[in-house]
Amino acid sequence: MNGHKGFSSMFQEGRLTLGLNIPIEAHGSNVPTLEHQIERAQLAEAAGFSCLWFQDVVLEDPTFEDPATGQILDSLTYLTYLGAHTSTINLGTAAVVTPLRHPLRLAKEVASIERLFPERLMLGISSGDRRKDFEGLNVPIMERGRLFREAFDYFNDVISEEFPSVESPMGKIDKSNLVPKPTSRIPLLMTGYCQQTFDWIAEHGDGWMFYPQPPEKQKEVINSYREKAAAFHPEVFRPFIMPLPIQLSEDKDAPLSKIPAGYRGGRQAITDILREYRDIGVNHIMFNLSKSERPVEEVIDEFKEFIIPSLRKDKEV
Q: Matching InterPro entries, A to Z (predicted)?
């Protein structure tokens, strides 16, 4: 991805950047209102966050404990909407469930987004895990690994080649061509294992998103990924991305403590844990502020005034 402005600014070896999950709202266990998302996205951009992240969810499933149902609105539609109200911040999917979206339609959608917002789209892709979505679309969830590979191959053929010849269980392309083509190759970020082997993930992704773990466990995963990626792509940097729920305390000196899958603490403790993740090889962290005990505008402002400048002094963000 050399020369890709969005990718190069967001992912650099030995450095850490920060992003925010949409909706940017402290809704807790309640359904989010989705109010003030334009203003908050613009605040995040001005504060130095590098990416807004969108989930791909179709149906509300009470067993999934996700009151936001992703971000309620369709991920690619809402990404386009907020992209039109910002200018530089990257726009990421975490992640598009490719077995549930036809790859030709997906290629058309993301190529159009890339044309509208050049080199800002970070396309996270996954095999999906929400059974109700698969049932609703009549897609067999136990075949999602195969469907993911078939969609991946079809997508890459039609988005990158002129008048490709494609014979696939997903469809046939003969003497026809997808338009528009993206102006730059869109980064493809694998999410989890996508029902594939670790080798397949390391070979085919431009980067890898994996679930949050304590630094000592995450370090082992990152080292394994980098070794495998280097075997397929010597001298090519592959970034590692992870989500992280946080609760930033008003007391700047509050000690670090655990919350489900994340951390609570004052700005010094949060900065310290971010440095620790940076040092083990994490290149980007996306924050979920849904459980924030403070107004999200205050949290964004504190990142802007203290945490991001502190990291930049280390030449990391």
A: Diverse_substr_monoxygenases, Luciferase-like_dom, Luciferase-like_sf, Luciferase-type_oxidoreductase
